[in-house]
Design a protein that fits this description.
The structure is a single chain. Strand 6, helix 6 and strand 7 form a beta-alpha-beta unit. The strands form two sheets. This protein has a seven-stranded parallel sheet, with helices on both faces. A six-stranded parallel sheet has the order 10-9-8-11-12-13, with helices on both faces. Helix 8 runs parallel beside helix 9. Helix content is about 35%, strand content about 20%. The protein has two domains: about 190 residues, Glycogen Phosphorylase B (Rossmann fold, 3-Layer(aba) Sandwich); about 170 residues, Glycogen Phosphorylase B (Rossmann fold, 3-Layer(aba) Sandwich). It is globular and about 65 Å long. The chain contains 14 helices and 13 strands. The relative contact order is 0.12. With about 375 residues, the protein is an alpha/beta fold.
C-alpha cells in the first residue's frame, strides 16, 4: 500500500503552538502509511535534521505573499508540483486571503484541510492589530465552503473566529490538541531534582507559566500579580516563566521596575516542559485570547491546579482542576491564595486526565480523517 503524502504548512522555528501540534502528530503518525513534508516561512529550522531523518522534506519559502505575491505563488506552486501530495494541511490563525487554498486547488490536490488554531490577532501594535482584524473580517465574509475540502478546529471558539457562519457546523471537525500523557504524570523525584536545579527552596511556592512571550499570552499580568502578592501577603513564592519571544527583555525590565527580578525565573526556550511543570505548584494562563492551549492540557496532566483567564475556551477544562478568573489583579491573588491550600493532593490529580487528550488515541482519529476519500 502506498503512503499518503501530506504537506504541512506552516511550521516555524519559534516552535509555537501550531508547530508543536504538527510535530506531535508527526512523531506519533504511522509512518508506514503516512508521509509528512513541511513548508516554512522561517529562514532556518533548528530541528531540520530531526525531521529529515524520517525522510521528510522541508521547503523554505523566501517571501510572504503580502511582500511579493508573484514569487510566493511561483514557489508554492513548485512545491506542490514536485511533491505529488494527496493532502495539503493548512494551519490558520487569521485570514488575509485564500491564496494558498487556491494554489492547492489549481494543483489538483485531493484534500485541502483548513485547520483553525486561534481566536484573535497576534500583533503587539494596537493599530496594526485593528487593521489585521478588519482584514480578517473582510476576508471571512468571502469564505465559501468550496475554498477547501475539510475544515478542522482545535476548539469551538477557534472555529467561530476562523469560519464564522460561513462553514456549516456539520462540516467542521474538532481535533483535540492532544499530548503524550505518560510524559506528564506527576513524579515527586523529578520535582525535587528540578527545584534544586532552579534554586527553589522547599518553603517557596512556584507560580508557573509556559508560552511564547507575545501579546496574546499576557505574562506581564503575572509580573504584576507577583508584585502585588508581595505587598499584600507574606507568602513566599516565585514566578517561573518558561519560554522566549519578542517581549522577553521588556518583561525583565518590568520585573526590575516592580523590584521582583530576583524572584522571577526566566528559563528561555526549553524542550523539557514535562519536567519543568513538576517544579511548579500552580499553573497560570492569563491569556488575552487562545484557540485551545496545549500548555493548559499539559499542566492538568501533571496534576497542577490551573488558574486561567475567563476568555480561554471552557473546552480547556478537561479536569476539575481548572479555575477561570477575570483579568483583575485582586481576584487572581485571592484565587492563588485559595488554591495553595489544595496543593498537597497533586499526585491524585495527575491520575484523572481525560483520555480523549492522549495523543496515542487522537492520532488514530487524525489518520482516519486523512485517509477518508484518499484510499
Amino acid at each position: 500500500m502506498r503512503k499518503i503524502k501530506i504537506l504541512q504548512f506552516p511550521i516555524a522555528n519559534s516552535k509555537g503552538g501550531i508547530t508543536q501540534y504538527i510535530l506531535q502528530n508527526w512523531k506519533f503518525i504511522d509512518k508506514a502509511k503516512f508521509e509528512f513534508d513541511f513548508a516554512t516561512m522561517s529562514k532556518s529550522l533548528d530541528f531540520e535534521n530531526e525531521l529529515k531523518k524520517t525522510g521528510s522534506k522541508i521547503y523554505y519559502i523566501s517571501c510572504y505573499a503580502e511582500d511579493n505575491k508573484e514569487k510566493f505563488v511561483r514557489e508554492f506552486t513548485e512545491i506542490l508540483s514536485n511533491g505529488n501530495y494527496d493532502i495539503v494541511h493548512l494551519h490558520t490563525k487569521q485570514w488575509k486571503s485564500f491564496l494558498v487554498e487556491r494554489i492547492a486547488k489549481e494543483a489538483g490536490i485531493k484534500k485541502v484541510i483548513i485547520h483553525a488554531h486561534s481566536t484573535g490577532i497576534e500583533t503587539l501594535d494596537e493599530k496594526k492589530r485593528q487593521e489585521e482584524l478588519q482584514l480578517h473580517q473582510y476576508t471571512l465574509e468571502k469564505l465559501t465552503e468550496d475554498v477547501a475540502t475539510d475544515y478542522w478546529a482545535c476548539s469551538q471558539k477557534a472555529a467561530d473566529f476562523i469560519f464564522g457562519n460561513k462553514i456549516s457546523k456539520a462540516k467542521i471537525r474538532e481535533m483535540h490538541n492532544a499530548i503524550d500523557l505518560l510524559r506528564y504524570t506527576y513524579n515527586p523525584n523529578v520535582r525535587e531534582r528540578y527545584r534544586k536545579e532552579l534554586d527553589i527552596k522547599s518553603d517557596e511556592y512556584i507560580i508557573g507559566n509556559v508560552g511564547r512571550f507575545v501579546y496574546s499570552k499576557n505574562q506581564e499580568f503575572l509580573l504584576e500579580v507577583l508584585a502585588s502578592i508581595y505587598k499584600k501577603s507574606k507568602l513566599k513564592c516565585k514566578l517561573l516563566l518558561v519560554g522566549s519571544g519578542e517581549r522577553e527583555e521588556e518583561y525583565k525590565k518590568i520585573a526590575y521596575k516592580f523590584g521582583i527580578l530576583q524572584d522571577v525565573i526566566f528559563t528561555g526556550f526549553r524542550t523539557d516542559i514535562p519536567e519543568l511543570l513538576q517544579a511548579m505548584d500552580i499553573f497560570c494562563l492569563p491569556s488575552r485570547f487562545e484557540g485551545m492551549p496545549i500548555s493548559i492540557v499539559e499542566a492538568q496532566a501533571s496534576g497542577l491546579l490551573c488558574l486561567v483567564s475567563d476568555v480561554v475556551t471552557e473546552e480547556s477544562k478537561v479536569t476539575e482542576n481548572v479555575y477561570f478568573c477575570r483579568l483583575k489583579i485582586d481576584e487572581w491573588i485571592r484565587a492563588i491564595l485559595q488554591m495553595i491550600e489544595k496543593i498537597p493532593d497533586r499526585e491524585k490529580r495527575s491520575a484523572i486526565m481525560n483520555q480523549d487528550f492522549d495523543i496515542k488515541i487522537q492520532i488514530r482519529n487524525i489518520e482516519d480523517a486523512y485517509a477518508r476519500g484518499i484510499l
